[in-house]
Structure to design on (111 residues):
């Protein structure tokens, strides 16, 4: 009896994990896959400069972590000094401490 219950629980856990993986794969709508990174960057605009951290990066855009959304405009220049990168971009989505951005031009970001 216990063996049947354990087998049933194991199958349920596996099926739930498989379902979650399928759901996450469907939710991924990006055309270009992002690479996980952890790089210090600067958001530059006429309103001023803001520090941030780049969490994910692709040739089409990035996911930024910011201390606050206050003062960060819709369009700005992202500068990543360690990668010698400077790109014009616009915000695509925002949450309390994160910004998803799209680069204005499609150039290779990282090798």
């Amino acid at each position: 009896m216990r063996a049947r219950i354990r087998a049933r629980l194991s199958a349920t856990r596996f099926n739930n994990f498989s379902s979650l993986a399928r759901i996450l794969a469907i939710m991924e709508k990006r055309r270009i896959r992002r690479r996980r990174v952890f790089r210090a960057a600067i958001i530059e605009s006429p309103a001023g400069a803001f520090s941030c951290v780049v969490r994910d990066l692709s040739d089409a855009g990035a996911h930024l972590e910011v201390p606050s959304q206050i003062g960060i405009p819709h369009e700005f220049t992202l500068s990543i000094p360690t990668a010698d990168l400077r790109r014009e971009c616009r915000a695509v989505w925002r949450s309390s401490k994160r910004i998803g951005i799209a680069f204005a031009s499609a150039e290779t970001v990282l090798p």
About this structure: The mean pLDDT is 80.
